[in-house]
TrEMBL record, chain B:
It comes from the Bacteria. It comes from Azoarcus taiwanensis. It is found in: Cell membrane. The chain crosses the membrane at residues 21-38, 44-63, 70-89, 95-117, 124-142, 173-192, 222-242, 254-280, 311-328. This is Branched-chain amino acid ABC transporter permease. The keyword Cytoplasm does not apply. It is a multi-pass membrane protein. Keywords: Cell membrane, Membrane, Transmembrane, Transmembrane helix. GO terms for molecular function: branched-chain amino acid transmembrane transporter activity. Its main location: membrane. Signal peptide: none annotated. GO terms for cellular component: plasma membrane.
Length: 311, 346
């Protein structure tokens, strides 16, 4: 935020806002209002999470809840521990203390493949697509845990293997490829795609996992304005049409404040704020973390101006 | 020029061969394979059988190294397990040929699973070294487990016999080996149309994100090792019926390198690559031998030329790696593409 030109941010925010309003209207017409965290049983609970690498504490005593159907965003300056938090939730790192509960079930000791099967899908900050495969195969791979084909079926491509592949192909085409508007690239190898399209394919692959919660690590980082708008629209649609809870890490403040129902702020591995976008914006700790210490009230005013223009 | 191949169903779009032209070429290939034994002499039939065996084994190694990204230098040793199993079954129990070949495959698969165990922790060159270690251990077992393997003198294998027909010539073995190899190749091609094959490629390309997508790494790496050594075991079994004597020296480390070279020259991670690579590696030394034989030279000159042949073979391999790193299959694809677009784009 400190480095961003306020003008750029506000322009971005304005553009996204239009999309957001549309989605909000859709949600209201569907009978649902903004989801308030804490009122329903959370889909994901993180409790007292501490993660250390040698002497360095990447996370200390982090705890928050993600309400089902919400868009929850984790923000924080570089090196605050956001990606470490993601990696712990998806099971790469084992926390030294603390618990992660998914739909009430303790998954702290569950291996990553089993978490995927439960409905925890994620994308990566540095795109992690399989470069040797086409877009279609990358997306199909997401369904892996839900398919039953065994080696013998596969070698003979008979019965179950053929049936499953055809069903999968149809569903991927009709629900995911159409939804994300990537039908023109389905047979291309992913390595030739632009950055924005690769991010979209990664999201498609995550959606093929039949996720209950979709974790996006910086979904719009490095994207141009148009790509960012598209992605923001897809994130809202995923929540509204698919009913998938979204947990994301993002630096684009305009997008964070517009899309999120709930914002969690990390700094130096500690949770410093947790609440609605408006609450977080007003939090002096957050302003200090982002803009450095100084005259807090003046900085707060600057931040509010930016956001007021934006949305 | 390729037109009129619009697809109207997902099944059609996912088929291994999807155009009439491809079916026509397949039919021609089929007729050629059927007719070949009747026009070829003993020498060419011998080569054809050898090529079939090598294609089966190279396809197996391609599943492991080309598709799953686990470099193995143990393929010859797994072939050895298959060959010894077939020889022992044939000698001790006299069981049917196809059962022996399957048994060879399964015993080799067990070996492969054990050798594959370190692959969760060990990758790349380190894994290659650990598979070399495994093949050294296996060589020791072949040479010293006298009651089963017959020690250094090895086992003589009786000719394969199915329904009273003795498969004792290359002509007859051709009808046994070629269908088996074709089935194995089609099996491998099918594998990569399903979730199992996709999981292998995912592990090769990015094992960490494969895990997040729900692929248990150890299980799939072992599966890949198992399948690859099953292929090697069946190929080794065919080898035993072909050469009819199995000794510890039949499956040297050099042979493992031969198969690795075959899939690299052919094109790793493609079905066609293993086939073309195995054909290239088997046939080119023979072709060079023929060319040297045709040259009007005295006997002395032929003696000098035989090491030159080896050097030319090596140079060809290096040449392919430098000028076509994607292997022979890429050359093939380029030729195909040319004819698909011709005459609209040169």
């Amino acid at each position: 935020m400190a480095r961003d030109t306020p003008l750029l941010v506000s322009a971005l925010a304005l553009a996204i806002n239009a999309q957001h309003e549309l989605a909000a209207r859709k949600r209201q017409s569907a009978g649902g209002d903004k989801v308030h965290p804490g009122k329903v049983n959370p889909i994901l609970e993180v409790e007292g999470l501490t993660l250390s690498f040698g002497g360095i504490k990447a996370l200390s005593d982090v705890g928050f809840e993600v309400a089902p159907g919400s868009i929850t965003t984790v923000i924080g300056p570089n090196g605050a521990g956001k990606t470490s938090l993601f990696n712990t939730i998806s099971g790469f790192y084992k926390p030294s203390t603390g618990r992660i509960r998914f739909e009430g079930e303790d998954i702290t000791a569950t291996r990553p493949p089993a978490r995927a099967k439960l409905g925890l899908a994620r994308s990566f900050q540095n795109i992690a697509l399989f470069r040797g495969m086409t877009v279609l195969d990358n997306i199909k791979l997401g369904r892996h845990t839900h398919l039953r084909t065994n080696v013998l079926d596969a070698l003979f491509y008979f019965g179950r293997a053929r049936r499953e592949e055809m069903e999968l192909r149809q569903e991927v085409e009709e629900r995911i490829i159409d939804f994300l508007e990537i039908d023109h690239i389905r047979h291309m190898p992913v390595s030739v795609l632009s950055y924005g399209l690769q991010k979209r394919v990664e999201m498609a692959r995550a959606l093929a996992m039949r996720p209950k919660i979709l974790m996006l690590d910086e979904p719009v980082a490095g994207m141009n304005r148009e790509e960012t708008e598209d992605m923001a629209r897809f994130i809202l649609d995923v929540r509204d049409e698919w009913g998938v809870t979204v947990l994301m890490v993002e630096h684009d403040m305009g997008m964070v404040m517009d899309l999120s129902d709930h914002v969690v702020v990390l700094n130096f591995g500690k949770l410093i704020a947790d609440g609605t976008p408006a609450e977080v914006q007003a939090n002096p700790e957050v302003i200090k973390a982002y803009l450095g210490s100084g005259d807090v009230s003046e900085l707060r005013e600057r931040l509010h101006q930016t956001v007021a223009v934006g949305g | 020029m390729r037109i009129g191949t619009a697809r109207s169903s997902y099944r059609h779009d996912e088929a291994l061969f999807d155009s009439r032209t491809q079916y026509a070429w397949l039919a021609i290939l089929g007729v050629a394979l059927l007719g070949f034994p009747f026009v070829a002499d003993e020498y060419w039939l011998y080569l054809a059988c050898l090529v079939a065996i090598n294609i089966a084994s190279a396809t197996g190694l391609n599943i492991l190294t080309g598709y799953t990204g686990l470099v193995s230098l143990g393929q010859a040793a797994f072939m050895g397990i298959g060959a010894y199993t077939v020889a022992a079954f044939e000698q001790k129990f006299g069981t049917p040929v196809l059962l022996n070949l399957l048994a060879g495959g399964f015993v080799a698969m067990l070996g492969g699973l054990v050798v594959g165990l370190p692959s969760l922790r060990v990758k790349g060159l380190y894994l290659a070294i650990s598979t070399i270690a495994a093949s050294v251990v296996l060589h020791f077992v072949f040479a010293n487990w006298h009651s089963v393997t017959g020690g250094h003198s090895g086992i003589t294998v009786a000719p394969a016999e199915i329904l009273g027909i003795s498969f004792d010539t290359s002509f007859r073995l051709y009808w046994l080996f070629v269908p088996i190899t074709i089935m194995m190749v089609i099996g491998a091609a099918n594998l990569f149309r399903t979730r199992i094959g996709r999981a292998f490629i995912a592990i090769r390309d990015r094992d960490i994100s494969a895990e997040v997508l729900g692929i248990p790494l150890l299980r799939y790496k072992l599966l890949s090792f198992g399948l690859s050594s099953f292929y090697a075991g069946v190929a080794g079994g065919m080898w035993a019926y072909f050469f009819r004597v199995v000794t510890p020296e039949s499956f040297p480390l050099l042979m493992s390198i031969f198969f690795l070279a075959a899939i690299i020259v052919g094109g790793m991670g493609t079905i066609l690559g293993a086939i073309l690579g195995a054909i290239f590696m088997t046939m080119v030394p023979e072709a060079l031998k023929l060319i040297v034989g045709w040259l009007p030279l005295s006997t002395d000159a032929t003696l000098i030329l035989s090491p030159v042949r080896t050097i030319v073979f090596g140079a060809l391999i290096v040449g392919f790696l430098v000028f076509e790193p994607l292997g022979l299959q890429e050359i093939w694809r380029r030729i195909r593409r040319f004819f698909h677009l011709w005459p609209f784009r040169a």
